[in-house]
């Protein structure tokens, strides 16, 4: 079914009033309500060649991208819209899911042929969604009226930005870039320093879900903001990016920048990405009663598989948490590394009694590299930083973990010239919580490194031994 499905009066309306009034198109043709910032964004695409939006979470940024896509396509003859996002899942399940919903529920039957990630009116009149690492796929897309939509734009590779410029050569070419501002560098950030771009910042505090939740039930609420403030802390890069819609204030003392965490999450969205071994390593950060959590991380190099937490539970429950994960891992379970500091000692003893291969780590002990690090915790976290920097670790989209990792700072002590990672007490003074998920992750990764280093030493010495059998209950 082609564009001829539209009645003549409807077609005249689209190419007449709707072409210059995108808000009218959204309200009368699509049958949706736009809030103030969304109206400003779609009108900016009408009036300016380049529009870039830094947005908090849950304020309708993907929704307005979808609305803009349909408005541009159906109000400009033989127009083309190229939409993209960092991963195929984000293209299909997020942006094009919104397009599908708007198209199917429009007040006017729009016509065209709608597929999973494309909407075709005629051979030279269409919109398409693609996620790619191949810049060549952007070649050949030229039209008088062409729109490039980048959703979750900060996560898109720089070479794709460069390739996309090659299609924006016509008189009617326009760009809409939108996403959470996760990094104070890179192509997305650079657009906010460029006077040729119309810029928008949207804070979650702007959300009509706060003032008018009845009419905007899917947008961010005050309750969500308050919970994130409590969980992440107002000074954390996560709060700045995902709540305030501002680029994080990351300096050279940030241990693991938020953008590195986002890259690690993006790799995890790709099936099988980041798995180089069948061996499974567990990292357990032990708490007991109180505000801190007991956290168990399952690590299969070089991918974090799962993170499980319990709170206000005895050390017996911590042991059970390991046992349950051990049963799931079976013979692949290679090592359990446990924070032996404080209440963790009893957990170590019980797991060893049950036959588990346990490595006890005490954050107060000396580092293996005493020339460069003050303590072992400093060495462990620096090792983790290097894995993120080299893109050698994938992680789940766990907001607590990402907030903790991206908030930690470090310094080089001018007297000793050693690297020192910010302590928990120092983080607390900045209004941040104990980094329980981050500690569990670093314990798991460090334990795997230590075991492999020991194995390599034994192998070179000719005394390589297989791990002993494990007993489960």
Could you walk me through the main structural features you see in this protein, from its secondary elements to its overall organization?
With 473 residues, the chain is α/β, with parallel strands linked by helices. It has two domains: 3-222, Rossmann fold; 258-461, Nucleotidyltransferase, domain 5 (2-Layer Sandwich). It contains 18 helices and 15 strands. Helix 3 (22-30) crosses helix 5, helix 4 (36-47) packs across helix 5 (61-74) and helix 13 (315-329) crosses helix 14 (344-353). The protein starts with 7 loop residues before the first helix and ends in a 12-residue tail after the last helix. Mean pLDDT is 89; it is low at 457-473.
Quickly list its features:
2 domains, eight-stranded mixed beta sheet, disordered C terminus, alpha/beta, 473 residues, Nucleotidyltransferase, domain 5, 18 helices
Give the topology.
Blueprint (H helix, E strand, L loop, with lengths): L7 H8 L1 H4 L1 H9 L5 H12 L2 E6 L5 H14 L5 E5 L3 H17 L8 E3 L2 E5 L2 E6 L15 E6 L6 H7 L9 E6 L7 H5 L6 E5 L5 H4 L10 H11 L4 H6 L15 H11 L11 E6 L7 E8 L2 E9 L3 H15 L3 E7 L4 H10 L4 E4 L14 H14 L9 H9 L2 E3 L6 E3 L2 H6 L6 H26 L12
Parallel strand pairs: 1-7, 1-8, 2-5, 2-6, 6-7, 9-12, 12-13
Antiparallel strand pairs: 3-4, 4-5, 9-10, 10-11, 14-15
Helix pairs in contact: 3-5, 4-5, 5-6, 13-14, 15-18
């Amino acid at each position: 079914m082609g564009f001829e499905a539209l009645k003549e009066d409807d077609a005249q309306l689209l190419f007449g009033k709707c072409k210059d009034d995108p808000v009218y198109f959204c309200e009368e043709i699509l049958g949706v309500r736009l809030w103030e910032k969304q109206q400003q964004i779609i009108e900016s695409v009408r009036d300016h060649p380049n529009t870039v939006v830094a947005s908090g979470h849950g304020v309708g940024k993907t929704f307005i991208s979808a609305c803009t896509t349909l408005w541009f396509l159906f109000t400009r003859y033989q127009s083309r819209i190229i939409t993209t996002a960092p991963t195929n899942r984000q293209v299909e399940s997020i942006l094009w899911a919104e397009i599908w919903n708007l198209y199917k529920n429009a007040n006017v039957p729009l016509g065209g042929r709608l597929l999973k990630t494309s909407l075709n009116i005629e051979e030279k009149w269409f919109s398409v969604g693609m996620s790619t690492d191949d810049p060549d796929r952007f070649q050949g897309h030229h039209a008088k009226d062409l729109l490039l939509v980048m959703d979750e734009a900060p996560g898109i590779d720089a070479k794709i930005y460069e390739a996309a410029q090659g299609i924006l050569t016509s008189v009617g070419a326009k760009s809409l870039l939108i996403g959470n501002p996760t990094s104070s560098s890179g192509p997305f950030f650079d657009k906010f320093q460029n006077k040729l771009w119309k810029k928008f910042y949207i804070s979650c505090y702007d959300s009509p879900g706060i003032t008018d939740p009845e009419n905007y039930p899917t947008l961010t609420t005050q309750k969500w903001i308050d919970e994130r403030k409590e969980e992440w802390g107002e000074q954390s890069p996560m709060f700045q990016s995902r709540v305030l819609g501002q680029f994080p204030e990351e300096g050279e003392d940030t241990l693991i920048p938020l953008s590195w965490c986002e890259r690690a999450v993006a790799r995890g969205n790709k099936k099988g990405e980041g798995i180089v071994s069948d061996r499974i390593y567990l990292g357990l950060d032990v708490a007991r009663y109180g505000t801190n959590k007991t956290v168990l991380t399952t690590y299969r190099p070089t991918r974090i598989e799962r993170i499980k937490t319990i709170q206000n539970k005895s050390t017996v429950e911590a042991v059970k948490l390991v046992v349950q994960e051990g049963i799931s891992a079976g013979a692949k379970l290679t090592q359990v590394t446990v924070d032996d500091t404080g209440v963790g000692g009893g957990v170590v003893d019980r797991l060893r009694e049950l036959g588990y291969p346990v490595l006890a780590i005490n954050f107060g002990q000396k580092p293996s590299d005493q020339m460069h690090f003050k303590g072992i915790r400093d060495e462990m976290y620096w090792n983790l930083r290097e894995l993120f920097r080299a893109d050698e670790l994938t992680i789940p989209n766990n907001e607590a973990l990402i907030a903790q990792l991206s908030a930690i700072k470090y310094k080089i002590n001018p007297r000793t010239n050693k690297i020192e990672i910010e302590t928990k007490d120092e983080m607390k003074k900045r209004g941040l919580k104990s980094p329980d998920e981050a500690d569990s992750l670093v314990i798991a990764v460090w334990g795997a490194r230590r075991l492999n280093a020991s194995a390599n030493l034994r192998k070179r010495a000719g005394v390589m031994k297989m791990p002993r059998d494990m007993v489960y209950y």
